[in-house]
Fold this sequence. Notes:
single chain; disordered N terminus; 15 strands; 236 residues; mainly beta; 3 helices
Amino acid sequence: MKRLHLFIYLLLAVVIFAGCSKTSTNLNNSGESTGTATKEDETVYNGVDGKNADQDNGETKDKTDAEISMLDFFLPDGTKAHFKGEGNEFASLDIDVAHPYENYIIVHENNGGALVQRVYKIQDHQIYLLDTQAVDMEQDFPSLADLDAMTPAELYIDAPLTKGKNFGNWTVVDTNVSVETPYKTFDDATVIEMKEKDSVNRKYFVPGFGEVKRETIMDLEEGEVAVTSMLETIYE
């Protein structure tokens, strides 16, 4: 079992987004920490508190493929969210989304072990992951000059996401499917998949929300292990 736990932990460091604590870190557009997000000082949208999940972001429901922008692959600027984890203690995570500069998205993700900053660059039909690194809670965002100098590390999205399309190591395996999360059931999800020797990774995207679910299924000597993170609560 020790070997299983170690394997899962290492894989999560690459596939499942990492983080720092069970409480959302509230980061402003300068990258500075401004405290923690709580239900007392945040508007909470989870289908139970604040308002019904079916009412949120109503504009997204009727969007056609032509109307979906690349920004729709992320939650809005300043949004914080919690993902419920299953299968491993590091699968639960909190995220902060920031849009500090035009064409750049910075996401901080925490799961109780480390705080990871992911930097994305948006182009007309593509989104690139520029950088992934563990950061301190109080670390500022990179400057615009630093971001412009970064070399893309990975193609994150290549739109449009049509069934059967391949980009990087990912394949679009399904579109307009229903996906159940603790937050709500979405009816217009797109699923991308990456297969490796002993594992399968999947991400579920919904316009206006970005990733609402991610899962890793590993085939180990001890048997099949599934680790899942699903959108549960949105704080605005």
